[in-house]
Amino acid sequence: MNLLKEIDVDKTIVVAFSGGESSAYALMLVLEKFKQTHNIIVCFCNTGEEDEETFIFTKRIAEYLKINVVWLEYRSERGFEIVDFDTAYRITDFEKNNEYPNHPFHLWVKDYGLPQYPKRTCTREMKERTISRYLSSIGVMPRMCVRVVGIRFDEIAKRTPNEKQYYPLIINGVTKSFLNRFFEYEMPFRLNLKSYMGNCGACVLKGLRNLCTVYRKRPEKFEFFKFLNDKYGGGNHSFYIKYNTIDSIIEMAKDKKIKNAKDNRFDFQYQQDLFFDPILDTEGACGGTCEAFA
Ligand code: SF4
């Protein structure tokens, strides 16, 4: 496949910044190559399940690169709202005690139903189409834009690149170990979040080991998904790979034979396949990183 390596000057470039380090480096490469010649729009979509650390990293990256990042959230009936670091949705006691009335992910579930592995319907609507709606609202035709996808070189075997999109990390051979070294030694700050916690903590596309680890370390990350399960899923919705439910993940998390996922941010010789267990570590496209347009 011939990957897109140059972008016509009349095209607007759209970067869906996921709030992670891979995405941040992809953004840097795009700015380095196209900042002088192209209109570049950078969006960050908050599903409502993002960690505060992801917000902080997103804000710091925008300040560090001196760019504007447009923060977007899904709203009912295929709407969206522009927010910022201060106004982005966060789960509060009021939200918890009142069935999360303003939670973007909840608003999306009301419109579309519950997510389920391996479908990426949540990413598609809360990120990809939300960005498209924003672009239309500012007079930019989404289909005339080139979309940047932050899939790494070492992830290419798991994905099928679209030759109309731009893949800076693949083109430049960027791997996880390279990124770990770059952020550890060449950047003044990192994303302060363990690698298995990325994006929605209880993400439907994460592998079983990751889910068990999230439950053991941060069980509160499952609270909102439990609420969805009880209200819309009859208490038994199979969100996860191999028809696993929240209850089955909680049971699995008690099994001491299942080791925790590694926080691989400090693994500078990272080789994914050496640690790979096909049952526990298989995950859906974008699991753990939630790349839009992937
Ligand atoms: S992180 Fe997972 S659950 Fe959250 S929007 Fe992305 S794919 Fe869906």
Care to give the gist of this entry?
The protein is built from ten helices and five strands, in the order βαβαββαααβααααα.
Characteristics:
294 residues, Rossmann fold, 34% helix, 10% strand, 5-stranded mixed beta sheet
Produce the secondary structure layout:
Blueprint: E1 12-16, H1 21-34, E2 39-45, H2 52-65, E3 69-75, E4 79-83, H3 93-97, H4 104-112, H5 121-137, E5 145-148, H6 168-171, H7 176-185, H8 208-217, H9 223-232, H10 246-253
Parallel strand pairs: 1-2, 1-5, 2-3
Antiparallel strand pairs: 3-4
Helix pairs in contact: 8-10
The structure holds iron/sulfur cluster.
Residues 47, 49, 115, 120, 122-123, 126, 199-200, 203-205, 286, 290 line the site of iron/sulfur cluster (SF4).
Q: Give the H and E element order.
A: EHEHEEHHHEHHHHH
Helix content range of the residues, please? 25-40%
Number of strands: 5
Strand order of the largest sheet: 4-3-2-1-5
> Low-confidence segments, ≥5 residues, pLDDT <50?
none
Mind telling me the CATH class of the domain at 12-194 and 265-275?
Alpha Beta
CATH architecture of the domain at 12-194 and 265-275: 3-Layer(aba) Sandwich
Q: What radius of gyration results from the CA coordinates?
A: 19 Å
Through-space gap between termini: 16 Å
Average pLDDT confidence is 93
**Helix-strand makeup class:** alpha/beta
What CATH calls the topology of the domain at 12-194 and 265-275 is Rossmann fold
Instruction: Give the CATH superfamily of the domain at 12-194 and 265-275.
Output: HUPs
